[in-house]
Amino acid sequence: MIHRLNTKKSRYLGLFLIFLFFVPIGCVQKRLGINNSGQYYNGMVVCAYPDASQVGLDILKKGGNAVDAAVAVQFALAVTFPEAGNIGGGGFMVYRSKTGESNTLDYREKGPAGASANMYLDANGNVIPDMSLHTHQASGVPGSVDGMVEAHRKYGKLKWADLVQPAIDLARNGFKISKKLAGNLNDIQQPLKKLNPGKSYFIKEGGWKEGEILVQEDLAKTLEQIRDKGRAGFYDGIVADQLVAEMKSGNGLITKADLQNYHSVWRKAITGNYKGYKIITMPPPSSGGIALLQLLQSVEKYPLKRWGYNQDSTVRLIVEAERRVYADRSKYLGDPDFYKVPVDSLLKPAYVSARMSNFSWDAATPSASIQPGSFVGYESDQTTHYSIVDRDGNAVSITTTLNDWFGSKIFVKGAGFLLNNEMDDFSSKPGVPNMYGMVGGKANSIQPGKRMLSSMTPTIIEKDGKLFMVVGTPGGSTIITSVFQTIINVIEFDQSIQQAVTSKRFHHQWLPDAIMTETGALDSTTVTKLQSKGYKITGRGPIGRVDAILKTQWGYYEGGADPRGDDTKLGY
Ligand code: GLY
After folding, report:
1. DSSP summary character for residue 352
2. What pLDDT digit, counting tens, does each position of 295-305 carry?
3. Among 106, 144, 379, 419, which residue has the most ligand 1 atoms within 8 Å of its CB, making it the best to mutate?
4. Strand 506-507 and strand 466-471: pairing?
5. Phi/psi at 218 (5° precision)
6. How many angstroms separate the CA atoms of 90 and 383, rounded?
7. Which of 136, 253, 387, 484 makes a 20 to 30 Å CA pair with 98?
8. Looking at the structure, do residues 424 and 546 belong to the same domain, yes or no?
């Protein structure tokens, strides 16, 4: 008996000593933000290029909040990730404060005042190939600089100049280019030469090599204007003059007045629930938020967890939901300032479930038999997303773009930055697919001052009223389905955030009627079963580059950086 008591006592004593030993270590680690296998307590940045992630992390460490870090990352990506990082494009921000307040910022480009519905049609009413893509007329009025100024004005803590300076340093001193960036720059040498006569930006005889230093002095000077004058440093003064001169040199439409009239807009986030998780996401003019919520609602009542990741039944259900959601997108989604988007109707549970009612396990529903629903535009792969959280728990989810890879590939002479070709995201002609296969109609027709429809889906998720996930991706029309799959990979298939980001993806967008798959996304048995039910399957290259952060139940942050790119997660 005495012996047993002693054993029991020594066990308690042992546990107490372990507690005394580990708890202070945990507290010290938490205070110092010591990296413990990729888990961080104080903040995290996940974005498309390592130098830009470093810039964001430095800002967080200096006491900046998530919005400060986001502003610094946007400008740093404009230097280090010219494929899609930008000051000549636009984007969307979803924000959630440490206290749970949410907001979104729409800094999407707008059609210039000189734009018109038929501007890309010839005399016979046919779409003129390439005109909405690689000409001066392809650019919408850029929104990124105004967006960053506005985000900083409302939520920023550190000085504006301190957030722009790191990008100036990267542009002026140069940075080491990765193998992927070298390859991407080499791939566009011919169009760069053709579209930028007399300009030398990014052109290199003999080609770029990994590890070389890319210096952008003109861009550094432009960023200095933005650092010193804020909004006026881009929409007025020397940079605006350079942009308008560039437009005039190629019959472009953007005028001084267009620049001065550009303003980003705060919009109420749209929210929905999935199995107790609250989804906070982007409203129109992105189609992304509505489509994501429709997809989640469409699959919620089915036992995905039991069926398993990318198994036959899982794929069939998701494909049938996607087919219907993308059909709706083609008809009902556009800029809410110009077209009454029926948000509430599209998200009504009864409507979503009625849309799924003709889904049959016997055979695939042909897309030809699916029309947009009724009740009482495929964009570029080349966008970029970043997710940031700070030590207080504020979170930012931003997707930003020039549309195509390196936008229109036209530089503003003397200013050193690339112009977007976002006008291609409008519907040039009803029913005619744009370069990425998306069709649209009246809701997304071209009008002066209107924002073109997007698929960008920056999203933040709460669990039990607390921050749970920050997620988003580039990928044009595949953005919505990649964000959707990442979410269900975590919630349904219990994948870690890194696994969920790395996992192979598939995509269906109503038209064309085919399941697009990354190599290895579906095993051969699943492929055979799907084909036997009438599903067409086509392989394609990588789908999306998701950058996400998860807050674990233990209170630390874990990142998921997409291995498909140079995406990098850094925390402290
Ligand atoms: N240009 C890509 C998107 O906005 O969806």
Report:
1. H
2. 999 999 999 99
3. 379
4. unpaired
5. -60, -40
6. 10
7. 484
8. no
Q: Is 319 in the same domain as 330?
A: yes
Structure confidence at residue 379 (pLDDT): 37
Nearest in space to 499 (alpha carbons), one of 563, 456, 543, 556: 563
Residue ranges of E strands in 232-367: 265-267, 270-274, 277-281
3-state secondary structure 136-167: HHHCCECCHHHHHHHHHHHHCCCCHHHHHHHH
Rounded (10°) angle between helices 50-61 and 66-80: 150
For residue 543, how far is its CA from the centre of ligand 1 (angstroms)?
Answer: 14
Report whether 547 contacts 70 (CB < 8 A): no
Q: Are both 281 and 378 inside the same structural domain?
A: yes
Active site residue 383: yes
pLDDT of residue 75: 99
What is the side-by-side strand order in the sheet with 395-401? 265-267, 102-107, 90-96, 395-401, 383-389, 44-47, 568-571
Q: Is 557 exposed, middle or buried (0-12, 13-18, 19+ CB in 10 A)?
A: buried
Q: Is residue 105 part of a domain?
A: yes
Number of domains in the chain: 2
The pLDDT assigned to 19 comes to 55
Residue 377: predicted pLDDT: 34
Residue among 381, 385, 291, 283 at smallest CA distance from 335: 283
Residue nearest atom 4 in ligand 1 by C-alpha distance: 454
| Helical H segments across 1-49, by residue range | 2-32
Ligand 1 mutation pick, 281, 381, 419, 422, max ligand atoms within 8 A of CB = 422
Instruction: Summarize pLDDT for 186-223 with one digit per residue, the tens.
Output: 999 999 999 999 999 999 999 999 999 999 999 999 99
Residues 6+ apart with CB under 8 A from 78: 85, 86, 87, 144, 167, 219, 223, 417
Which candidate in 135, 222, 383, 517 is catalytic?
A: 383
CB-defined site of ligand 1, < 6 Å:
379-380, 383, 401, 403, 422, 425, 454-456, 476
Nearest to 216 by CA among 248, 181, 260: 181
Question: 67 is written with which tokens?
Answer: 């919005």
Phi/psi of residue 392, each to 5°? -85, -15
The β-bridge relationship of strands 537-539 and 515-517 is: parallel
The reply to whether the predicted model has a pTM over 0.90 is yes
Nearest CA to ligand 1 atom 3: 454
Main-chain dihedrals φ then ψ at residue 246, nearest 5 degrees? -60, -45
What number of residues does the chain have?
Answer: 572
Strand partners, 271: 280
Pick out the chain residues at pLDDT < 70.
1-36, 374-381, 435-437, 439
Atom of ligand 1 nearest to the CA of 404: 1
Evaluate whether residue 404 is within a structural domain. Answer: yes
Q: Tokens in use for 316?
A: 């069939």
221: containing domain: 44-265+387-444
Q: Which residue minimizes the CA distance to atom 1 of ligand 1?
A: 403
Contact indicator for 479, 455 with CB cutoff of 8 Å: yes
Same domain, yes or no: 298 and 392: no
Q: Would you tell me the crossing angle of helices 237-249 and 217-229 to the nearest 10 degrees?
A: 130
